[in-house]
Amino acid sequence: MKIAFDYFNTISQDPQTFAVICHSLITSGVKVYIISAVGEKRLAKSGGLEGYKREIEALGVPHSGLRILQFKDSKEVPALKAKACVELGIKFMVDDRKDTCEELRLKQKSDCCGAEVVVSHGCDDDMGHYGRACDCADRRGVTSHYECRGCGKVCDTK
Questions:
Q1: Is the CB of residue 63 less than 8 Å from the CB of residue 34?
Q2: What values do phi and psi take at 133, rounded to 5?
Q3: Do residues 73 and 19 both lie within one domain?
Q4: H-type helices in the chain, by residue range?
Q5: Could you count the other beta carbons within 10 Å of the beta carbon of residue 123?
Q6: Are residues 89 and 122 in the same domain?
Q7: Percent of the chain scored above 70 by pLDDT?
Q8: Is the domain of 66 the same as that of 137?
Q9: Which of 36, 112, 120, 138 has its CA 20 to 30 A from that of 2?
Q10: Of 149, 98, 146, 102, whose CA–CA distance to 128 is shortest?
Q11: Which of 2, 81, 85 is nearest to 37 (CA)?
Q12: pTM of the prediction?
């Protein structure tokens, strides 16, 4: 079996946990891939493609392969990731983008299933609010810093 995890705003939010998960999967015989789509602006911040690769590798999350997909418009991301999953034979991908997961589940007619990562920040609402990882300049999306979609609260869970 082959499984993929998105890097930015997925693995980057809790690399220690993903390291444990990926290690467990690999030792049980599962091939684990990291698939990340990156735009020109983010590549420039990271020092180009090699810098972006180093950023991912520096987190120490074990994997069987790394696929970096470059895009000019973020609307391209779902189709790019779905195509990569088909090419690699990925059966399950975890990503922070709902549109990517929908592309995998509904539009590709492949065997791949996508699962969206949502994170609860524990606000007072009984139903809980779920946040999307923040990409503010000081955190660069690498710590668990979220802005709640429901109430707008910003919190740092580390």
A1: yes
A2: -60, 140
A3: yes
A4: 15-27, 40-46, 48-58, 77-88, 98-102
A5: 17
A6: no
A7: 67
A8: no
A9: 120
A10: 149
A11: 81
A12: 0.72
